[in-house]
């Protein structure tokens, strides 16, 4: 392997470690995204390193997202809706209307407000 290519792979891995996408990592090391894909296809160790770094970044984001979703601050309502949709398969308004050709009103029920004491209200 050429030293320049190895340097660019190392640089790309540094960006994957920060949670960058394939395109962002490629741009940061001055190559096209398809070049990174080609390197990953031909170098199983490089591909495994990328997959491991992406998994680590996902785990960190999941932990932060969970903490924020559990925070009773109403500013996190959208995050809670996305979380519940991803975890429970809740449907958005447009998806419900597409399923029901008759349309109609869709009511979205948010989780009960959680007080600092740990009790909930409806």
Structure description:
The chain has six helices and two strands; from the N terminus they run ααααααββ. The protein has 122 residues and is mostly helical. The chain has one domain (3-118). It has a two-stranded antiparallel ribbon. Helix 1 runs parallel beside helix 4 and helix 4 (44-70) crosses helix 5. The radius of gyration is 21 Å and the shape is elongated. The N and C termini lie far apart (63 Å).
Note the gap between the termini: 63 Å
Instruction: Tell me the total number of β-strands.
Output: 2
What is the ordering of alpha helices and beta strands?
Answer: HHHHHHEE
Approximate strand percentage: under 5%
Q: How do the strands and helices of this protein lay out in sequence?
A:
Elements (H helix, E strand, L loop, with lengths): L2 H15 L4 H7 L4 H10 L1 H27 L6 H12 L4 H7 L13 E2 L5 E2 L1
Antiparallel strand pairs: 1-2
Provide a compact summary of the structure.
With 122 residues, this protein is mainly alpha-helical.
Keywords:
single chain; mainly alpha; two-stranded antiparallel sheet; 2 strands; disordered C terminus
């Amino acid at each position: 392997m050429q030293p320049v290519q190895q340097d660019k792979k190392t640089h790309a891995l540094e960006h994957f470690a920060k949670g960058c996408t394939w395109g962002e990592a490629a741009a940061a090391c001055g190559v096209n995204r398809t070049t990174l894909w080609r390197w990953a296809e031909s170098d199983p160790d490089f591909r495994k390193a990328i997959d491991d770094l992406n998994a680590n970044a996902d785990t960190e984001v999941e932990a932060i997202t969970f903490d924020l979703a559990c925070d009773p601050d109403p500013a996190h309502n959208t995050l809670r809706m996305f979380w519940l949709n991803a975890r429970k398969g809740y449907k958005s308004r447009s998806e419900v209307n597409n399923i029901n050709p008759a349309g109609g009103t869709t009511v979205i029920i948010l989780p009960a407000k959680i007080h600092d004491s740990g009790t909930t209200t409806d």
